[in-house]
Amino acid sequence: MQSEQSVESVVRHFQQELSGTSCRLVAVSKTHPVELIREAYDAGQRLFGENRVQELTAKQPALPADIEWHLIGHLQTNKVKYVAPFVHTIQSIDSLKLLLEIERQAARAGRVIQGLLQFHIADEETKFGLSLPEAEALLQDAAVQQLQHVRLAGVMGIATNTDEEPQLRQEFSTLRGYFEQLKARYFADDAGFREISMGMSSDYRLAIEEGSTLIRVGSAIFGRRAYPAPTT
Ligand SMILES: *Cc1c(COP(=O)(O)O)cnc(C)c1O
Questions:
Q1: Residues 139-145: contacts with CB within 8 Å, 24+ apart?
Q2: Domain spanning 7-222: CATH 3.20.20.60
Q3: At what angle do helices 96-108 and 132-140 cross, to 10 degrees?
């Protein structure tokens, strides 16, 4: 989609499409160079998503400090320390162990990091994420009730890679249901628990209709990802 349009014009198009909604755009810049990220930044984009720690830590120093970096990929506990000094949101929290390590590293960095609980909503086994009972067990842990350096702000999910609209809608509405149940049971008095991160280039319109507050869009903005050629 839109591979011939400039990054700037696509970003402006999203700004128009989202204005008047409560949904915001996370521009997913993985595999793309800092020059393209800068073009999106210059068009006014401030939320960017990367899925790999190494790539994120390489790009971050080369770009403006007021970018809100979102880590959207699976995160190993031993890598949290590399992103804790600057990351704004970790969208991929899928275990108590990871959550407590983020708390520890954010404390060391003297920061508060926003976190989203990642849920498994796709019918594919390869996608990471919690079930609702697992999320509830995590939230009931005594240590989680004492968090001072992680602000839990909502939920995230990756839908099945399919064109089947009814299935996508059902997966998005499942995630929204999880959000609403957790909100009612654990965050009723916490206005900061408000994010539902769902929807990508091919399905973001459906996700918005189903209540998304953060769409994560990569290829529709930056074009197809060029994967590095295999080394021989
Ligand atoms: C790559 C990625 C996206 C963006 O995918 P596009 O199809 O390029 O929009 C969104 N979410 C996650 C978790 C991703 O890894």
A1: 139/182, 139/186, 141/96, 143/96, 143/100, 143/103, 144/96, 144/99, 144/100
A2: no
A3: 50
pLDDT digits (tens, 9 = 90+) for 9-53: 999 999 999 999 999 999 999 999 999 999 999 999 999 999 999
pTM: 0.95
**Tokens encoding 187:** 């965050």
Going by their DSSP bridges, the two strands 47-50 and 68-71 should be labelled as: parallel
Q: What pLDDT, in 10s, does the model give residues 175-187?
A: 999 999 999 999 9
Instruction: Break the chain into its structural domains and give their ranges.
Output: 7-222
CB of 200 within 6 A of ligand 1: the answer is yes
CA 143 to centroid of ligand 1, rounded, Å: 31
Centroid of ligand 1 to alpha carbon of 49 (angstroms): 9
Distance 201 CA to ligand 1 centre (A): 7
Q: Is the CB of 90 under 6 A from ligand 1?
A: no
d(CA 160, CA 98): 24
Does residue 49 contact residue 20 with C-beta atoms inside 8 Å?
no
Residue 135 C-alpha to ligand 1 middle, in angstroms? 23
